[in-house]
Design goal:
2 copies of one chain form a homodimer. Helices cover 74% and strands 0% of the residues of chain A. Chain A has 9 helices and no strands. The structure holds a DNA duplex.
Chain lengths: 194, 194
DNA sequence: CGTCCCGTTGACTGACCGTTCAATCGCTGG
DNA sequence: CCAGCGATTGAACGGTCAGTCAACGGGACG
């Protein structure tokens, strides 16, 4: 494991614990076991470290979303797949999710990266449009808005876990997947009658 | 209009423009047209200003939610009412919403205030439980989780407006209300059949 | 063995900005 | 007109850290 990666991983831990603004460059270096000057050999600034964390991980996330989008399956399954990818990230890497949700998602300093976030919404939107075209979802619902509502529901559950406000055992995660998926699929479904 | 309120309003504008961390106390004072020392006559610190903005406005918001909860109407209407309260805030006071969504919602510094946020979720949860008890919503969906998903969907739409990523004319707001409400109500509704 | 050179170190600096406080202002009530 | 007092001012302070840089280490290569 090279130093650069070690610094990034340390930064995720430190940002998760203190938040980006409270975190000191020295803390990151200490956690990584290097002198803090070295950080500036690999990154332009503290903010650049945060940006890198975002870009590299969001890239991986996008790749997984694209894979789901391109699979040959009906839209409802795709949406369920997306929900699972998002929510299961919590168990895999809580610190990373904490940083993404708390420090990246809405930080004014990273608004240049909006384009990359937009791509995720675009994928969800296309999946919803596919569902509408194939008759699984009812038309007349603005797919763009729906994609935001869908994503927001998932992100808020992640936030609940980050803040320690929602239980997050393995079963809890499964239940959360079910609830989010069920609301979204019933919420969008075509051909429902009372 | 007294100085204290003027300072608070200025703070909302300045925080909305730069974000809490980038905003300087001097900027707030200048915007309010007072010396920056005066801020410390009314508030203990810059952070205390943010906390005050949150507490006073969230209190008003909670009062409106409680009013909806206590009205005598079926749960679906109540949920729709809550969605409208939240989303219409954007047109009323975009700067305030910006601060709430961007700087307050997930800031590590305001986590003492979690209790007040929790109350809002509790209200939504009780409304959903009421709907389940009265047969409007299907049982078997965890009402607590559902309240987070519901709230998250709405907050994300607000975020879209804050970031300038979603159109926000009057019609757009109305459409957003419809989409969010429709997804939630179909998503939770009882007695649906394909 | 010498000499590059990349990676690494950590003492140091310098600016920023939240906060303090002594001085002044101006209203109010006697 | 004066005394008292809360409101207001803004110059000065000081603590904190992000970022710099001169020096060092050791591997690679001739």
């Amino acid at each position: 494991m090279d130093r650069r990666s070690r610094i990034l991983e340390a930064a995720v831990r430190v940002f998760a614990e203190h938040g980006f603004h409270r975190a000191r460059v020295g803390d990151i270096a200490e956690d990584a076991g290097v002198a803090h000057g070295l950080l500036y050999h690999y990154f332009a600034s503290k903010e650049d470290v945060l940006r890198t964390i975002f870009v590299e991980n969001w890239g991986r996330f996008l790749a997984r979303l694209r894979a789901v989008e391109q699979a040959e399956q009906p839209a409802p399954e795709k949406l369920a797949g997306i929900a699972k990818i998002l929510l299961r990230t919590w168990r895999n890497d809580p610190a990373l999710v904490t940083v993404m949700v708390r420090d990246v998602a809405r930080s004014p300093e990273l608004q240049e990266q909006v384009a990359e976030v937009r791509e995720a919404f675009a994928i969800v939107q296309r999946v919803i449009e596919q569902g509408q075209a194939e008759g699984d979802f009812r038309t007349g619902i603005d797919a763009r808005l729906a994609s935001w509502v869908f994503y927001g529901g998932l992100e808020e559950v992640l936030t609940g876990w980050v803040l320690g406000e929602l239980p997050d055992s393995g079963e809890d995660v499964t239940r959360a997947e079910q609830v989010a998926i069920e609301i979204a699929l019933f919420g969008l479904a075509a051909g429902l009658r009372p």
